[in-house]
Amino acid sequence: MTQAHQAKLDDRLKDILPLLSPNLRVLEIGCAEGSLAARVIEQGALHYTGIELSADALAAEKILHRVVRASATSLHKEVFDLLLSFHVLEHIDDIGAETVRGDRCSLIMARCCSKYLIMPVTKC
To answer: Per-residue pLDDT tens for 7-42?
Structure first.
C-alpha cells in the first residue's frame, strides 16, 4: 500500500472512528479491495457488508463479512447503522436516473441507513 493510499485511509478513519460501536452494521458502497473495511473491522465493526461491481470484489471477499456484486437495490430490505460511500456517485453515468428511480441510490440510502451516512463526492 502506498503512503498516499495509507494517508487517505487514515483521513477517512478519523471521521468513522467516533461512530463505531459494538454490533455496528456497516454498508460500504464501492468497497474496492476492502482496505478501508479491514481497518474499520479492526476497530470493532462486527458486521461489514460491501458492494463492489469490479474485479476488486474478489479481494474484498477475503476481508469483509459479505460482498454483494449487485446494485444497492438488492439490499433494500436490510438496515445498516453506518453507510459509507467514498467517491462512487461521480462514477455513475446518469446520476439523475439513479436517484429518481424507485428504490435506487438516494432512496436506498435513506431506507437502509438507520444512523450515519458518510458520502463525500468530488463532482456530480
So the answer is: 999 998 998 888 888 888 899 989 999 999 999 998
pTM for the whole structure: 0.78
- Match 460511500 to its residue by C-alpha cell: 85
Q: How far apart are CA 112 and CA 121, in angstroms?
A: 20
Residue in the structure block whose three cell numbers are 487514515 = 10
Show the domains of the chain with their CATH numbers: 3-118 (3.40.50.150)
Assign 3-class secondary structure to the chain.
Answer: CCHHHHHHHHHHHHHHHHHCCCCCEEEEECCCCCHHHHHHHHCCCCEEEEECCCCCHHHHCCCCCEEECCCHHHHCCCCEEEEECCCCHHHCCCHHHHHHCCCCHHHHHHHHEEEEEECCCCCC
Is residue 29 within 8 A of residue 72, CB to CB? The reply is yes
